[in-house]
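Q: My labmate handed me this sequence with no annotations at all. I'd like to see what the chain might look like in three dimensions before we decide whether it's worth expressing. Could you predict it?
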Amino acid sequence: MADRSLEGMALPLEVRARLAELELELSEGDITQKGYEKKRSKLIGAYLPQPPNVHTEAVQAALAKHKERKMAVPMPSKRRSLVVQTSMDAYTPPDTSSGSEDEGSVQGDSQGTPTSSQGSINMEHWISQAIHGSTTSTTSSSSTQSGGSGAAHRLADVMAQTHIENHSAPPDVTTYTSEHAVPVERPQGSTTSRTAPKYGNAELMETGDGVPVSSRVSAKIQQLVNTLKRPKRPPLREFFVDDFEELLEVQQPDPNQPKPEGAQMLAMRGEQLGVVTNWPPSLEAALQRWGTISPKAPCLTTMDTNGKPLYILTYGKLWTRSMKVAYNILHKLGTKQEPMVRPGDRVALVFPNNDPAASMVAFYGCLLAEVVPVPIEVPLTRKDAGSQQIGFLLGSCGVTVALTSDACHKGLPKSPTGEIPQFKGWPKLLWFVTESKHLSKPPRDWFPHIKDANNDTAYIEYKTCKDGSVLGVTVTRIALLTHCQALTQACGYTEAETIVNVLDFKKDVGLWHGILTSVMNMMHVISIPYSLMKVNPLSWIQKVCQYKAKVACVKSRDMHWALVAHRDQRDINLSSLRMLIVADGANPWSISSCDAFLNVFQSKGLRQEVICPCASSPEALTVAIRRPTDDSNQPPGRGVLSMHGLTYGVIRVDSEEKLSVLTVQDVGLVMPGAIMCSVKPDGIPQLCRTDEVGELCVCAVATGTSYYGLSGMTKNTFEVFPVTSSGAPVSEYPFVRTGLLGFVGPGGLVFAVGKMDGLMVVSGRRHNADDIVATALAVEPMKFVYRGRIAVFSVTVLHDERIVIVAEQRPDSTEEDSFQWMSRVLQAIDSIHQVGVYCLALVPANTLPKTPLGGIHLSETKQLFLEGSLHPCNVLMCPHTCVTNLPKPRQKQPEIGPASVMVGNLVSGKRIAQASGRDLGQIEDNDQARKFLFLSEVLQWRAQTTPDHVLYTLLNCRGTIANSLTCVQLHKRAEKIAVMLMERGHLQDGDHVALVYPPGVDLIAAFYGCLYAGCVPITVRPPHPQNIATTLPTVKMIVEVSRSACLMTTQLICKLLRSREAAAAVDVRAWPPILDTDDLPKKRPAQIYKPSNPDMLAYLDFSVSTTGMLAGVKMSHAATSAFCRSIKLQCELYPSREVAICLDPYCGLGFVLWCLCSVYSGHQSILIPPAELETNPALWLLAVSQYKVRDTFCSYSVMELCTKGLGSQTESLKARGLDLSRVRTCVVVAEERPRIALTQSFSKLFKDLGLHPRAVSTSFGCRVNLAICLQGTSGPDPTTVYVDMRALRHDRVRLVERGSPHSLPLMESGKILPGVRIIIANPETKGPLGDSHLGEIWVHSAHNASGYFTIYGDESLQSDHFNSRLSFGDTQTVWARTGYLGFLRRTELTDANGERHDALYVVGALDEAMELRGMRYHPIDIETSVIRAHKSVTECAVFTWTNLLVVVVELDGSEQEALDLVPLVTNVVLEEHYLVVGVVVVVDIGVIPINSRGEKQRMHLRDGFLADQLDPIYVAYNM
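A: Here is what I predict for the chain of 1519 residues:
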């Protein structure tokens, strides 16, 4: 036997020898027949002629093509805990570079014979070695081409993460242009551990700023940049206006696109529906007839999970039981006067898939009782996929009773009292068990009323739409009967035939053939439950043999699984089959299952003409079915269509281009008694041309009649009147839209090429989800995707549909496999469909939501994807390739001359944007401190006139007073410190002294001590004792940069600075002399220093900006006094006032309020160190309440702490007597755009505790002027405006209504301080701008700082920032440039002087703004969008790197959610900002660095990312 079949084969000698050995083993009984056949088929399998799978070949060919043009895709990096732990980790594979080079054929042995058409045999070989523990490698490693996304470099990457020490060097991934193979030296695996290799030429790679970087991250980014440099699709021309000048590109029709050229089609008529004399007048009449004439005839045989017959329902039993059910429904529910169910009411049928008999009895019981059955799935849990929508259907149908079986009733979830709970979205139901033993016998005189079929509704079939909503299709009794007759005629059914049904008997083909038509013809149905198919996919074939069935109803997947499992079966004979109905013939890919099935089972008696695909839809019932013929010579119809043509809806028979074709088979002829035509899918239902694909429409009695309760949708679907091109209707009768796309081919054969539901229109071309699934499955079909489970759907992002593919990966697949598979799928779909995939996600096996029969629940999957709860284990986003409709990059216009701007503003009636606070000279007040030029003199005066007046009170974390200072105490303490500086420090006047103190009164005393001694103080935040390594270097830097001659501090910090930990962080020997002020001399100074000139330096203010720059500014005595006076006037501060301050006292306005204002104005400052709030978040607000404070100042971090920490405690705080009703100003001290969301939630939260919402406001200051605005006591409330975010990107301000799209709320940053003048200037031309124009804020005031204090004295920067003049207009005034963008707007409100009030709105820092696509973006706007995208994103920071936008998100949730964020972040940034995200980095909470003011340090974050120091959970590189 063996040799005969092998005659014609050219088998290699070694194979023949091995076959001979097998024969011998078999004859000697060393091996069983089964084992022999298994091994033999394995040996010769590769040489057998394989059935051609057109599509797989096409995909392989497409991938082979890709070998030439390669992509270097950077593999995402994962934290070890996210990498699926597999036993494979212990083995290092021989290097295979089958990433994108050797797609089609991988060289296996050295001769280079293709060993597998499916992909990397090397990889498989390695895996099998890993499993069998062999260590010698027999495969020769294929040489890696440069830039290949080969396994080598990606593996190296995974290994760098997984700490496997033994790696081969990765290929160079940065020079992707070379076409030739570059041999890479591979060191033999040495046992010494080595560090992870650097990437290719990472050493030489320059970063954007010309800084050489040698880090893994930047090498990947470089790789991504290189990949993105590849030419994209041709640029597009036209634009559509998105109600603003940022125009989104619109796809222009391709001039060469195929257009339909055929004549207009004619409606196709099916054969006449023959009237057979003995056809029953209704289905119930048929049941009565068979139930009485042949009660013993079998009607339905059900199977258990072992494939044994469980139960045989005869026609007699079906008839009597259905009558019993009918009687009980009508007479035993409710009372005699008020029955619960009347004829015409709807009733739910809830039966499990393994109990068709009970379901069938209930169904016919309903027909006999003239109630309308609604068969639905069993709800397994309260939140089943899609069950909520079914509940809505039941509610809209007015269902109050559910019929169910005993077993099912017991299995439903129950409440503790034993009641069945109400399922989510379901109406309240009475559950009624239909088993005979629970029912009453009908009286002898009761008989159901059997009428002829009429237009009453017979049953409602549920249908799930693309969006997951469930509709009920109503089928009338006449349609039901006519449909059974048409099927009987088309399929040639005869009495007592046996039919095997694998399909769901509740709906569609399974219901029509297995429950309805079978009864009309007294057939015997063998029902195979899904649970049995799962265990034994061959069960249906075995039953066909066992019962010699004539007909079987299956889906192509049942054929597919039978193929996979058939090898062990010998005695199969399918010659009894005259008809194998393939229910999903409308899926164009069913043809490959049919072909493969025929190919294998032809030898087992299956005839080609037996396979009958049919097309069906819930609305039109059976649309077309192939008739069983006796003529085996007539081959079935096929068409090889161009996939490219189909995307334009045009039929082109394709012969040459084998790559992108769709082979379709016909689904037979139109049904008897029906008329069919195809109409254009969109717009008016106009007939298609003969070479055009349209939606098939049917006009027949045997169709659904409506969607229950939805008249509008019914009209659009069930009452369609197709028209010819001249506009004349085709028929006077309405047609029904089938939801199928197709055409009528030659000979009246109907071809279906897809479903309307699966249609995705991407840039004007139509793609079918099924086609894309098939292409993805053809990329290594069985190997990678778990049980072929792939979901394809589209999501709308930025005005176009984007394709998303979600696949379940096999449990044993490695990171390497999955990434390789993903990159292949992208290439295959690009080649075959010419469309980009937006997102490809892999999820663990068995995790996608299932439909009741185990398919993928598509709308639920899409829902999970969009809400970020899909939890994929791998994600690849390709927005760079897909999104081709971004707005054009902005072209900067050549600058307009100054004169034109002036004229332009005059013409448009705009005033120049300038504003000022109250004039200091005009204000008459009894300010005693004004007569002193210096603060030191004010303090001495207060110590004499009001010695015991308390100036400062410091609170500890319990809210009790830790320390306080009166005027005289402060004065005396300052004197002692001055003596110490002069005697112990030997300092001269003008020397700089660094004050390193915790927030408190020591700092204040030391400051005035310096002034008394004539020294210049610099306040410095002390190092954090738990974090010396990172905080001490900053201290050291400020001390050095400020050229401090001495350092004053407390004893405790003194020890810390000299500790061992400090020595490890900095060189402690380089500190200047350190003075400890806990031990002061007892004497007073001979005299107190008085500066000779108010313009002399009073103190230095050092601060680290958000961009990570350390900048110190000089404050003169004159500026300091002017500053204090301005604040005193704005806030109306007097000695009788108390002010609570919860701020860091080291720089800016925080320092001024903490140390200077009380001395100048005489009010009492209650000092609350912000660090104390970490132990007691209510400390600040309790102090405000207890001291009945009217004015308080805090920082954003304090406000955030209170909002988060006290959110749930407002009731208990109220009980403790917390009362904020006296607060009239609560000012957030900031140097940024007001955080409106935070201030609003703070106001809302504490409104119940008496806080007036208008009390909360912000201030604004910067380096050149520490406070420009500050909400005072008088004057209008802070206003909020809404601006168009898109206009801002173009440096324009466009006010819009609240809630309009792209609107951004901006809050005024407080009132401009007295003595301050502001103008808005163009940062490039330095010309003044008009009102409501975005520009740089320039400031002129007496308290401007007098310059930067730098060692190098960068004069150009200095003069530019502190002494700028306008290029035209008022060119005399000297302004300081703040470095912030903002705009002024004149409001309708009046300020204190009765003038109209000018509001200043700060938009953001110029340094922080990102220039992308020629537009200016502020990081905070993108970050706000990203934080809104998913509930688990707690914080976000963005920055750019080599023109790529990098988004870092902090994840508050399990690491499994990390990958959910990648698509959501990409979507939201595209939608709201028209930007493509380059890299998404998911990190732990607290990784984004934040400075003391609560501002994000984005540049530090960028440096940390590039140096690979963030330990991210996941890094995704978007393609």
